[in-house]
Amino acid sequence: MPFLRWVFNVFVVISVAEFLPISCSSSSFSSNQQQLDRVLKLPGQNFNVSFAHYSGYITVNEESGRELFYWFFEAEEDPSSKPLVLWLNGGPGCSSIAYGLAEEIGPLHIEKDGKTLYLNPYSWNKVANILFVDSPVGVGFSYSNTSSDLLSNGDNRTAADNLKFIEKWLERFPQYKGSDFYLTGESYAGHYVPQLTRAIVQHNEKNGEETINLKGFMVGNALTDDFHDHFGVFQFMWSVGMISDQTYKQLNVKCDFQSFVHTSEECIKVLVIADQEVGDIDMYSIYTPPCTANLSRLSHIWRRKTKVGLLRRPYDPCTEKHSTEYFNLPEVQDALHVRSMNSPWETCSNLVSEHWQDTPRSVLDVYRELLNTGLRIWMFSGDTDAVIPVTSTRHNIDAMKLPTVRPWRAWYDDGQVGGWTEEYEGLTFVTVRGAGHEVPLHRPKQALTLIKSFLSGKSMPGMELVSDS
């Protein structure tokens, strides 16, 4: 997630399984390493699973010893016929294992005791093979043998390392080389995903063939353009009554033209006032109560306080706390083949975020470039998120000036409005009603409907009319 670190800078200022056979002709090394990465059973897993899953490391730079940690889940049924989906969380500096996997789209989620697992009934591995990677180095279980690497991360190197990761991962798992491949993610992955998409397109062009069978990408509540994102955030906050007229005007004057990641002192001063006016709520999900647990990570001026539990389970606003407890257990790290760590595992790395280097003010130019490639491109937005709200995404799409193919309409899930959608030439936009920054966490069932539509290339479902006969 998903977390945008522009506000983290403000906060610092103001507060200091069953075995599935492999049917492929791969090298013996790839096959052997693949099986060494196999996760057989996890602590707290009191149930069997019908899918294989693997975790381990891929070296993306031999010279400095940069190693990215991955966790891969095969589809529940017939994985060889399903697409391959890579999920990235943002930050920059936040773990895809912590968020995307453990509380959003992964099949294994963590109970309140921080020790026990349960199956997510809306996991995306019902429709795809899902690959999670902690990126860049210094995030989650990923690391580098060169300590200065943790202080020099940025957008360009992250894209290059992620491309190398995909190439080498497909060498280890050659049975998926021909699979349709999609990139997905949220928040600062609004930078990672389109930049990585462009890197893959250029890689395929350079090699004269589609060595990576990329078909499209989808991003949610995504940082896209600093001006439009700031403008949309302040508009959203004002429109729902979170800030005063005066503060709204000052935010637009002092912050609209600022970087999200490298915020100016003038903007910070107004953000402090906005924080006081907003009060003690969760900016990632403004209508849900906060977690009262004392979390050690402070990721935002609007502190990370709440989560919404999965449907059919009791409401739980503290899922991040449970992940922190579970992934710090030595027996869990052993089961996941984690190499020895010098410090406790964290959901997000402040070190990485505070030392982030290059970050363009906009990736709209990347979108304009990719819109001509024929790739499937979707953007989605939870409409109760105040960090990168629906207003920000709509301003970004409007800036692309795309012709409308199918006008704005409601889409439905089990007869209820799930959100709204509009289809443009080359891009589809979907909102998810009642979801916060982490859409699959807040509305897991609707998020599964979303990924099904995206992968199939079909429009979001409409109202189904029931015949009286």
Low-pLDDT stretches: 1-26, 294-312
Question: Which percent range fits the helix content?
Answer: 25-40%
User: Main sheet, how many strands, which sense, barrel?
Assistant: 11 strands, mixed
What is the H level of CATH, i.e. the homologous superfamily?
A: Alpha/Beta hydrolase fold, catalytic domain
Strand and helix order? HHEEEHEEEEHEHEHHHHHHHEHEEEHH
Helix-and-strand structural type = alpha/beta
CATH-level-2 architecture? 3-Layer(aba) Sandwich
**CATH topology type:** Rossmann fold
Whole-number radius of gyration?
A: 21 Å
Number of helices: 15
Coarse morphology: globular
State the total count of DSSP E strands: 13
Distance between the termini: 47 Å
Strand content: 15-25%
CATH class: Alpha Beta
Provide the number of structural domains: 1
Mean pLDDT: 89
Q: Summary?
A:
With 469 residues, this protein is α/β, with parallel strands linked by helices.
Report what the structure shows.
There is one protein chain. This protein is of the alpha/beta class. It has a single domain, classed as 3-Layer(aba) Sandwich (Rossmann fold). It is about 35% helix and about 15% strand. Strands 1, 2, 3, 6, 7, 8, 9, 10, 11, 12 and 13 form an 11-stranded mixed sheet that branches. It has a two-stranded antiparallel ribbon with strand order 4-5. Helix 3 packs across helix 9 and helix 6 packs antiparallel against helix 7. The longest helix has 19 residues. The N and C termini lie far apart (about 45 Å). The relative contact order is 0.16. The N terminus is likely disordered.
